[in-house]
Write a structure and sequence with these properties.
Number of strands: 25
Structural class: alpha/beta
Distance between the termini: 39 Å
Strand order of the largest sheet: 16-15-13-11-10-9-24-25
Radius of gyration: 29 Å
Number of helices: 27
Helix content: 40-55%
Largest sheet: 8 strands, mixed
Strand content: 15-25%
C-alpha cells in the first residue's frame, strides 16, 4: 500500500459524497465508484480495502441529523467549546454533556468591548433563556445558515439579551492558550499601524473581519481568497523561515531546529486560528519531522492521506467544510502532479502549472458553492501569489515578532510597509479593473460536477504520462462541459416566475423559456433602520440570479418608489446588466446610469416577445402606493395580475371604469394589508391563486386576517413568503405548477 494510501482515503470521501445525494445521483456515483474500484480487481487486498473504505465513508461521514424533538430548554449545565469575536458581536458554542447537543450562543453588546469575563473555554454554564431555531435559507441560491451550522453539529441558537441569565464558572487548560493568543493580538494591534494590522490579522491570526469588504470582494472576484485565508502556504513559509534563521545564524543545529519546530508548530497552528488548511499543513509538517527523526521514509502523498483521514475520523464535521475540501483537493492534486512539474526546469512555467492545476482542481466545487469564476484569475494568481508569499507574509510575521520584542520600531516599519502595500494593491486594482469579469455558470447539478471531476482526472493522468494530444482533448472536454452546463437554460423549454422571500417587500423574477428574457418586477430592499442598504440584494436577489446563471436583466419594472419595492434597485444596477428600467410617469428617477422608460395606463409593453398590459396609473394619485403600476400578462397558460401597493380606492376606480378583467393568479396588493383586496375586487378578479409577499412577524401584521379570510372563503389557493419562502411557478408551453422552496427542501 506504500504510495497508495490516497486511494482508500478517496474511496472514504466518495462514500461521504454518496450519502449526500438523491437516489438517482447516488446510483450514478455508486456506478462510477464501482467501475473505479473494479480497476483494482487483480489486487484483492486493495480491492477489499477500497470497498470497505467506501462503505465506512457512507456511514461515518453521513451529515449529522437534528434531534427529532428538539427541546427549547437546556437539559443541564453546558460546557463552552469555542468562543469567537465577530464584527459587532460575540458568540460561543456550548454543549450539553448528557445529550451532546450543541447550541450557538450570540451576544450583541451596545458598546463592543469584550465578551463577558466568565465566558471561557471549558467553562461550565447554567442558562436560563430558551433556545430557538437557527435561521434557514428561504430562497434558491441563498446561504443556508442552518445547514452550515448543522454540518458542525449545531442545531439551535440563543441570542443573549441579558448576560446575567448566563452564569459560568471554571475553564479548561486551553483557555490560557486562548488568552495568550488574544493578548498577543492586542499587543500587535497597539504596536503597528491600523492599515497594516488588518493584513496581519488576516495573514497571521486568521481573522479577516477587519479587512475592507470591497478588498475581500476584489480578491474573491479574482479567485484570490486563498491568499487571505491562512493556508499551507503560510505555514510552510513560517516553518521554512524559522528553520533557515536558526541554521544561518547559528542559533541551533539542524537537530535542534527540528526539535524546536516540533514544539512550535502546534502553537503556531493555534495562534493562526486552527482552520482546516492550517491543521492540514501543521499535521503534515509534524509527521514529516517526526519521521525524519525515526529515519523512516514515507511518500508525501501517504503523509497527506494519513493527515486527511485523521482529521475526518477525529472530526467528521470537517468533511462539509469548504476550507477542508479546497485545501486537500489542491494539495492532493499538486502532489500527484509531480511528474508534470518535472517535465520542465522553467520556474515561470512551473508556477503557471501550479496555478492552473490548483484552480482546476477546485473549480467544480467552486461552481457548486459560488456559481461563478473568473477566467483571468490564473494571471492574477501568477502575479499576486509570489508577492504575498515572499514579501507580504514574511514581513507580516516579522512585524508580529518586532511588536513583541521591539514595539518602538514596529510602528515605524509597519507604517512604511502599510503605505507601500496600499499603493501596490491600489495599482493592482486599477490595472485589473477591466478584467473583473466573472463567468456566471449558475447552480451546477451533481451529475455535472462528477463529469467535471472525471474530466479533470483524465486530463491530469494524460498530462502526467506526457500524452499531450490526449491531455489536450481532455482539457477541451473540460471546457466543453463548462460551456454546456452554463448553456443549459438556453436549451430549456421551461420558464419560471419566482416570488422571492425578501421579508417585508416585493421581488418577482420572470424567466422566459430558452432564456429568451429575464424580467424583474420590483426589487425591495432592507428595512429603513438597517445601515447596509445592499443587504437584500447581496444576500437574496443577487445569489438567486447567480444560481440561475443570470448576469443580464432585460427589464426591471419598479411599480412605485417605496423602499420595500425599489430599495435594491441601485445595488442590482451596479452588479447586474440592467438593459431597461420601467417606471410610471410620476416616479422620481435619480442618476442610475440605465435607460429609463415611463409607462401609463392603456399602454402595452413588449419585452422579448412577452406582452404586458399596463392598467394603471393614468393620472397622479398623489401618493406612491396608489401610483403603483398594475400589470397583466399571460404566462405559462395562466393570466397574471401584479398590483403593487394599490388601495381599495384604486381598486374601486378600476372596477368602475371597467379596466380590470379576471386573472388566474393575483399578486395581492400591499402585502395583504386590509387597505386593499376588497371583497368586490376578489369577486371581479376571481383568481385561482393568490400570492402574498410579507415578512415574518412584521410589525404591520401583514397579511391581515380579514384579507386571508376573504381569499379562503372563495377557496383561493394562497401562497405567502412568510410561510412558504420563495414561491416558484414552473411552466412549459401552456401548463405549469406552483411549488414552494421550503416544501421542496423539506422533501429532499
Amino acid at each position: 500500500m506504500k504510495g497508495k494510501l490516497h486511494l482508500p482515503v478517496l474511496a472514504f470521501a466518495i462514500g461521504g459524497g454518496i450519502v449526500r445525494l438523491n437516489d438517482t445521483e447516488q446510483i450514478l456515483l455508486i456506478v462510477i465508484g464501482v467501475i473505479w474500484i473494479a480497476k483494482f480487481r487483480q489486487q484483492r487486498i486493495l480491492l477489499l480495502t477500497l470497498t470497505s473504505s467506501l462503505l465506512l465513508g457512507y456511514n461515518y461521514l453521513a451529515p449529522p441529523t437534528a434531534p427529532p424533538t428538539p427541546s427549547s430548554n437546556f437539559s443541564s449545565s453546558v460546557t463552552v467549546q469555542s468562543i469567537k469575536s465577530q464584527d459587532d458581536y460575540f458568540e460561543m458554542i456550548v454543549q450539553e454533556p448528557e445529550t451532546k447537543l450543541k447550541t450557538l450562543v450570540s451576544y450583541f453588546p451596545e458598546e463592543l468591548d469584550h465578551a463577558p469575563d466568565s465566558w471561557k473555554l471549558g467553562a461550565t454554564c447554567s442558562i436560563e433563556d430558551e433556545k430557538s431555531e437557527i435561521p434557514y435559507a428561504t430562497n434558491p441560491g441563498q446561504f443556508d445558515f442552518r445547514k452550515y451550522m448543522a454540518s458542525q453539529g449545531v442545531f439551535s441558537q440563543l441570542v443573549v439579551e441579558n448576560v446575567d441569565h448566563i452564569r459560568c464558572h471554571g475553564q479548561s487548560p486551553f483557555n490560557r492558550l486562548y488568552e495568550i493568543r488574544q493578548n498577543l493580538i492586542l499587543t500587535v494591534e497597539r504596536s503597528v499601524s491600523e492599515d497594516t494590522f488588518v493584513w496581519i490579522a488576516a495573514l497571521v491570526f486568521g481573522d479577516q473581519k477587519q479587512l475592507d469588504q470591497g478588498t475581500v470582494e476584489w480578491f474573491r472576484d479574482f479567485n484570490l481568497s486563498h491568499i487571505l485565508a491562512i493556508s499551507g502556504l503560510h505555514v510552510g513559509l513560517f516553518i521554512a523561515g524559522v528553520y533557515l534563521v536558526m541554521i544561518r545564524t547559528g542559533v541551533g543545529t539542524v537537530e535542534q531546529a527540528r526539535i524546536f519546530l516540533l514544539l512550535l508548530i502546534p502553537l503556531y497552528a493555534f495562534i493562526a486560528g486552527g482552520e482546516p488548511s492550517v491543521l492540514r499543513a501543521s499535521i503534515m509538517a509534524t509527521l514529516i519531522l517526526f519521521l525524519v527523526f525515526l529515519k523512516i521514509k514515507i511518500p508525501i502523498v501517504d503523509i497527506l492521506s494519513i493527515t486527511a483521514l485523521t482529521l475526518l475520523l477525529v472530526s467528521p464535521y470537517s468533511y462539509s467544510s469548504i476550507g477542508f475540501q479546497f485545501s486537500f483537493l489542491v494539495t492532493f492534486s499538486l502532489i500527484l502532479s509531480a511528474p508534470i512539474f518535472r517535465q520542465t526546469d522553467n520556474i515561470w512555467l512551473q508556477s503557471a502549472q501550479i496555478s492552473l492545476i490548483s484552480q482546476l482542481s477546485i473549480l467544480p466545487l467552486q461552481l457548486h458553492y459560488f456559481y461563478e469564476f473568473n477566467p483571468i484569475s490564473l494571471l492574477a494568481n501568477l502575479i499576486l501569489v509570489p508577492y504575498f508569499s515572499f514579501i507580504v507574509i514574511p514581513i507580516s510575521i516579522l512585524l508580529v515578532l518586532m511588536a513583541v520584542v521591539w514595539p518602538g520600531a514596529s510602528l515605524f516599519f509597519s507604517d512604511l510597509f502599510g503605505s507601500v502595500h496600499g499603493f501596490v494593491l491600489e495599482f493592482a486594482e486599477i490595472v485589473a479593473q477591466p478584467f473583473r469579469l466573472s463567468w456566471v455558470v449558475g447552480e451546477v447539478p451533481p451529475i455535472w460536477i462528477m463529469l467535471l471531476f472525471l474530466s479533470f482526472m483524465y486530463l491530469m493522468a494524460s498530462w502526467s504520462r506526457q500524452e499531450l494530444k490526449r491531455a489536450s482533448l481532455n482539457g477541451a472536454l473540460f471546457v466543453a462541459l463548462l460551456m454546456a452546463v452554463s448553456s443549459l437554460p438556453y436549451f430549456s423549454p421551461k420558464g419560471t416566475v419566482t416570488m422571492l422571500d425578501i421579508g417585508q417587500g416585493d421581488a418577482f423574477v420572470v424567466e422566459l423559456p430558452y432564456r429568451r428574457g429575464v424580467i424583474l418586477i420590483d426589487a425591495g430592499g432592507p428595512p429603513s433602520f438597517l445601515e447596509n442598504r445592499s443587504k437584500t440584494a447581496d444576500e437574496i436577489i443577487l445569489p438567486f440570479l447567480k444560481s440561475k446563471g443570470i448576469t443580464s436583466v432585460d427589464a426591471m419594472i419598479v411599480t412605485h418608489e417605496d423602499g420595500d419595492h425599489n430599495g435594491s434597485v441601485p445595488s442590482l444596477i451596479r452588479d447586474v446588466i440592467v438593459k431597461k428600467l420601467i417606471v410610471h410617469p410620476y416616479y422620481p428617477v435619480t442618476e442610475l446610469n440605465v435607460e429609463v422608460t415611463r409607462v401609463s395606463a392603456g399602454e402595452e409593453l413588449e419585452i422579448n416577445g412577452q406582452i404586458w398590459k399596463v392598467l394603471h396609473p393614468k393620472v397622479d394619485a398623489g401618493n406612491p402606493n396608489d401610483n403603483s403600476i398594475i400589470l397583466s400578462s399571460e404566462i405559462g397558460g395562466k393570466s397574471w395580475m401584479f398590483t403593487g401597493d394599490i388601495s381599495v380606492d384604486v381598486e374601486a376606480d378600476l372596477m368602475e371604469q371597467q379596466k380590470v378583467m379576471e386573472a388566474d393568479v393575483l399578486k395581492v396588493a400591499h402585502h395583504g394589508s386590509d387597505t386593499s383586496t376588497s371583497e368586490e375586487w376578489i369577486r371581479r378578479i376571481n383568481p385561482e391563486v393568490a400570492l402574498i409577499s410579507a415578512g415574518r412577524n412584521n410589525r404591520y401584521g401583514h397579511p391581515h386576517q380579514a384579507v386571508v379570510d376573504r381569499l379562503e372563503d372563495r377557496e383561493i389557493l394562497i401562497y405567502q413568503t412568510s410561510r412558504e419562502g420563495a414561491v416558484i411557478y414552473t411552466f412549459s408551453g401552456q401548463s405549469g405548477t406552483f411549488s414552494s422552496f421550503l416544501s421542496y427542501n423539506a422533501n429532499r
